[in-house]
Amino acid sequence: MTARPVIGVLLGGTSPEREVSLSSGTGVAEALEAEGWPVRLYDYGTAGEEKHGSVAARLEHALSEGELVDVELVFIVLHGGAGEDGRVQSFFELAGVPYTGTGVLGSSVSMNKWISKSLLRRAGVRVPEARLWSPGNPAPANIIEADWGAALGWPLVVKPVDQGSTVGFSLVESADHVPAALEKAAAYGGHVLVEAYIPGREVTVAVLEEQALPVVEIHPEHGVYDYECKYTAGKSTYTCPADLPQGVTRRLQEDALKAFDALYNRDFSRMDFRLAEDDTPFLLEGNTLPGFTATSLVPKAAAAVGISFNELCTRLAEAALGRKGAPI
Ligand SMILES: Nc1ncnc2c1ncn2[C@@H]1O[C@H](COP(=O)(O)OP(=O)(O)OP(=O)(O)O)[C@@H](O)[C@H]1O
Ligand SMILES: [Mg+2]
Hints:
12 helices; Dna Ligase, domain 1; 6-stranded antiparallel sheet; single chain; 4-stranded antiparallel sheet; globular
């Protein structure tokens, strides 16, 4: 057997989801090693450093004389921030190094829940009604009275437009709690999405190489799938395949595939839905770099169709290798 090419696994990084990425990345590296790939781990930062402009310099150093010097492809297991929104992808694109997953455009449009909505609507995928608030402009109190409550109904969801892991999220019951919720979401530095709350079931659909995998239903202890329910063992339970009427499953999978195309996703991604009480699916967002520990949702869905975590990681690496030498 010829030796497998060396893979650089990118993990950690500088976003608020750094800790999750360290778990995902370690698991991916172990899986790849078990499949015979030589692996180099690379963590370019520590949390909160993203604004200091040093990421590109570190990546360049790693490729030219550091940890990544002999790699033939990069397996990106970063969550949130520059690692998920296309910036790190564009670095490897320009450096001519193949990388796993979605490219630059798909990464950036998927990361922004407001831009995603317009692409999704156009593709015929139902999304919750929403408004965008730009911090400081104009005064939030006026907007609340003029518009949000009447347009979207109570309670409202307030969340950063471009973060993951439910950070900065609030469920707001009345107008007087809106300013604090806006401030909490704005603390992540970007615009804020104010969204209609969709009561109902929490389901997700992974897409792998243009195929929708079985639907996973999540039963979070808190009703909302918040940070604690995502990452504390026992705070959520999962059903896969979800116990749903066939027609509903089919609709969710069709919507997931439409969204995959509409958001320019590649290789794999995960579409998060809320299923309203009448079983209408509302797509909350697409994740191009979803949680990727062996027990995360995408690996869980893959396991349900007989694809092991090791095989899943190998397939994604091979898909990236297949793009080696392709023009950018
Ligand atoms: N409009 C909504 N109606 C009902 N629940 C919502 C809504 N928006 C968000 N939620 C709840 O908050 C969770 C996180 O929301 P969302 O998926 O939009 O954000 P995220 O932080 O990007 O998530 P991820 O960790 O999947 O990247 C959802 O899984 C759901 O439980
Ligand atoms: Mg989500």
